[in-house]
Amino acid sequence: MDTTDVVIAGAGPTGLMLACELRLAGIAVTVVDGLPARTGESRAGGIHARTMEIFDQRGLLDRLLPQGRPIQAGHFGGLPLDFADFDTRYPYTLAVLQSVIERELDSRAEELGAPVRWGAPVTGIRQDGDGVEVELGGPDGPRLIRASYLVGCDGGRSAVRKLAGIDFVGSDATMTGMLADVELADPPSEPFFGRRRGAGDFSAIQFQPGWYRLVVQRHDRVLERGTELSFDDFRANFAEIAGTDFGMHSPRWVSHYGDAARQADRYRVGRVFLAGDAAHIHYPAGGQGLNLGVQDAVNLGWKLAAAVRGTASEDLLDTYEAERYPIAARVLHNTRAQTALSRAGAHADALRDIMSDLIDMDPVRHRLGAMITALDIRYDTKGEHPLAGRRVPDVDLRTDDGDTRVCELLRAGKPVLLCRNGIRHIAGWEDRVDIVEAHSRTDRWTVPGVGDIEVPAAVLIRSDGYAAWVTDQPGDEGLIEALTTWIGPAD
User: Fold this and answer.
1) Which residue, 235, 258, 281, sits at the end of a domain?
2) Of 237, 258, 279, which residue sits at a domain end?
3) What is the predicted pLDDT for the residue at 424?
């Protein structure tokens, strides 16, 4: 029987990001996937500011930026949201295909020692007090792997979720979206998004020179999951709603989706966890799904690593569900709202007119945009400071070793104590926390959902970039408690 620290089922962006996080922390990982190989399907088409920051924190963004195209705005139910004045280095949506992201994460995971075992579906799980035994199927017959933990990142039809007995509750689909990546003989003069007509809406977005993603959404029919959609069916549906097929030909990918919204009622059963689409599915409004999964992985990775090393309490592992469940629930909530905005008819038209007027107001635009981009997330770290539990802005810093910034300090995947109040030592944690004395190049930081704050005297930054402890005072009151809670007891 093979042994490892963590088995990850599913080699999509969530599973690969989790594998990279664990390997960065020195944890042995086995990644398995039931598919025989990569499908080559382009799939999701963009990432938002917070996910770009996370990739930047791990040195991955430079691989993706040249392969994507910045789009200044996002949308809410098809209504444009301008991100240009958002306080982030990346105030835009990066149009980059999931297949590209997977290729770069594949490469990074392999560099770190976590290649994918293809053709290895999870077929059985047996837990005990010390670990979990994972049974794999596939062409070579049943195989067993013994691990400390198993994480199901195996999509909306997750075998791990079903084998663990976790319910997937929510609402069924009420509409169908269809998409195809194609070449066009008679392309539109410019890309467009969400033009509404009759019983649906349609879009034409150019991802790369020479080919487009066409989308048509119909609110008068539902295709069951697993139903095959042919290119001819797609073309007929698109032409019926749009009035033209733009001379589409040479399809690279044809698929369909719905607005079913479901969430696992638990993210953890003993030593089995869920992340990404295995934990939540929703209508792909605003392009939040891939981003949500990657952020699940980064939240869970450092906590599992601490558990494997024996420094994490059960309470720390439980914070994964406590922190991530409400975030996914909010995404399901806002995508249901966006479905309502996208419907046809006079009632939806009136709602869209009112929402358009509201979105023109900066506070509304900022509120919706920060939610879609996940820049406004706040976890419960028990701190009263307005930055506590929030993402630490990627500000420019000056140190004795030269200029740097917050994302660069997190490249090693370790927590960072960023201070300018004289803290030099934290006995018992120095091998687990990087202490950086630095001065901000500005006197104030802008925090989405809060506004401008004075630069703190010291911040304990978790491995995922969120503030675990913040003070404006010269001392370290509360720091030991925060270190014990989030990093583990002193050595």
Assistant:
1) 258
2) 258
3) 76
What's the CA gap between 422 and 475, in Å, rounded?
Answer: 8
Neighbours of 235 (CB within 10 A): 21
**Region 284-313 average pLDDT:** 94
Residue 16 sits in the same domain as residue 136 = yes
DSSP class of residue 117 equals E
pTM, entire model = 0.96
Residue-number span of the structural domain to which 164 is assigned: 2-170+262-373
**DSSP bridge pairs for 53:** none
Residues 148 and 186 in one domain: no
Which residues, 6+ apart, have CB-to-CB distance to 342 below 8 Å? 77, 78, 194, 196, 201, 217, 219, 285, 348
Give 201-214 pLDDT, tens digit per residue.
999 988 778 889 99
Contact criterion met (CB below 8 Å) for 401 and 458: no
All residues at 6 or more sequence positions from 217 whose CB lies less than 8 Å from its CB, including other chains: 175, 176, 177, 178, 200, 201, 202, 342
Closest CA to 303 of 462, 121, 124, 65: 462
363 & 416 share domain: no
Phi, psi for 177 (deg, rounded to 5): -105, 140
Q: What is the C-alpha to C-alpha distance for residues 265 and 472, in angstroms, rounded to an integer?
A: 39
CATH code at position 426: 3.40.30.120
Shared domain check, 467 and 344: no
How does residue 189 score in pLDDT terms, banded at 50, 70 and 90? confident
Alpha helices in 243-288 (DSSP H): none
**Res 421: pLDDT:** 67
Query: Which residue shows structure tokens 């503030």?
Result: 467
Is there a domain that residue 384 lies in?
no
Kindly calculate the radius of gyration of the chain based on its CA atoms and give it in whole angstroms.
23
Phi, psi (deg, nearest 5) at residue 381: -105, 10
Domain count, the chain: 3
